[in-house]
Design a protein that fits this description.
mainly alpha; Rossmann fold; 5 domains
Amino acid sequence: MTVRVRIAPSPTGNLHIGTARTAVFNWLYARRHGGQFILRIEDTDLERSKAEYTENIQTGLTWLGLTWDEGPFFQTQRLEHYRQAIQTLLDKGLAYRCYCTPEELEQMREQQKAQNLAPRYDNRHRHLSPEQQAAFEAEGRQAVIRFIIDDEREIRWQDQIRGQMLWKGSDLGGDMVIARTPDNPMDSFGQPLYNLAVVVDDIDMAITHVIRGEDHIANTAKQILLYEALEAAVPEFAHTPLILNKEGRKLSKRDGVTSIDDFKNMGFLPQALANYMTLLGWTPPDSTQEIFSLAEAASQFSLERVNKAGAKFDWDKLDWINSQYLHQLPPVELVTLLTPYWQGAGYTVDLEQDGAWWQQLAALIGPSLTRLTDGVKESQLLLTEAITLSPEGQEQLQQPGAKAVLTDISDWLATGEVLTAESAKTKINELTKALGVKKGVVMKSLRVGLMGTVHGPDLIQSWQLLHQKGWDQSRLAQALQTLA
Ligand code: GLU
């Protein structure tokens, strides 16, 4: 048997973290078993579905490296298949027309509430006679199609994550609507609904394993009944745990992030986010291993090692994983990724002319990055011709020897000395001796003269970068002027 799994997002919003994590698990399972991963866009809700969301979902999955083998298939292009299935169920007497009006349904609910009963459809039109049907139609009523759910049924399945599952037919809310009333009175029934469409698709697409969020468990019970009614093999089901925030509630808009774009904009790398998502609910065989490529995770992935309990979203861990990936990126790639952030902050980045300089800068700040968005903060001391003297910087320049350090280095640079890491270090050592001060005084003063502040990236490398632009001399001159 070839494993065939799918991700079936509704394009009613941008690619959501929960959907993306479900996609990760499906992708891993498909790759682990040499199977196929299918993308299906569940766009039957015409009011809420938008082409831009379909686009965003595909771009997001691709960005994360979750390539699909088949699709995208669109439910709106498959309506005929759903209609046929509904007709089959009607012909078999497994579905029927229900003519209840919204008011009648509301009244039913009110009565149930008054009796402290759970709201459900009471199956009142299950056995209408042809005469009763004709009478309702003569009144101009339109029918929905309901699928019969036997209250006595017990629906069991062996969930690949949650183990043995049991649902009672009586807990499914009564006979289920599978098609709305027709928009066009000439049609026999209207728009097919979610549970029916999913089952028809999963049958047609020969899906062997349905791996999806645990919020679909009740749907699974209903869908199993539909498989049986349509005389199709029931696939395996695996319900993945929800993603929770640190308070233990479902991660939501209130947590500031929902879509994959939000994470991208926050400066996370796709490979780091995908890596993190594999660990959101799955424990690898070596539970200490935390850094994985998707392909590596796939070679070890199994549904048995997916937890039942909700998966807490851990920002510190995501940050840590992101930093591990960032620190390993070659400078040339880092420059490409950081350029939009530098440009966004108003700096001119001309890689054709100055590519080597930007690469050295990326190599210098790379180890201090947690997110790409840190790129500006970590490099801004080196991106302008002038310095801004911090209060501690000003204080440092008042220390004995500071002015002499700046003057001496300025004079030395004016001679056109070639600045290398070696020559810079030698110069600092010589100056320390000549001035009879502590080396720290020289280093700190020079740092302030070059960068305006007492903290920052490696001094010698920073100096070299500034030197290539000719900014070391102008900055030292600026600092000296404040001491004049
Ligand atoms: N369209 C459903 C959703 O976005 C997925 C249904 C499924 O995976 O069966 O939640």
